[in-house]
Amino acid sequence: FVLPSYLGGGTITHQVVLNGDYEYSPQNNESAIIQNGWSDNIPGLNAAYYGITNRFFYDGQSGTTEILSFKVAQEAIIDSYPTNTTPTFYGGSTLSNPFVNLSGPFSPILLEAHLLPSDPVSFYGEVFLDESSRVLPTEDLSMIFNQAAVMPEAI
To answer: CA-to-CA distance for 148 and 152, rounded, in angstroms?
Structure first.
């Protein structure tokens, strides 16, 4: 996209990045020989991660800079392994097993945005949207300060 001169001129370029990853790990259950917290029974994983990232760049007089990126991603559970459902005895207390299987074949949807208006400050946010219950189980917002943009030499 070419910007008009009253907006400073330059061009905005849109880049689409497809993300994909396959993850596999076998179950590791050592609870028969070790009793040390919750790490004795690690569930297995067989899943495919996929997503799409939209990136926007501004090319002007001072060069090319990224101004915005937006990602949508999800993980599909191909196969799940049963976890040890017996409670764990730890520190004098009986604790339930925290490694429960996901309730469905898909993870919550990840929505992620990074706004980079100019150095030295940028803004980042992410939200996990659980479609089955229509809730946002986790969200994270942050403002990032790039010290190197203000003081590039070592301190």
So the answer is: 4
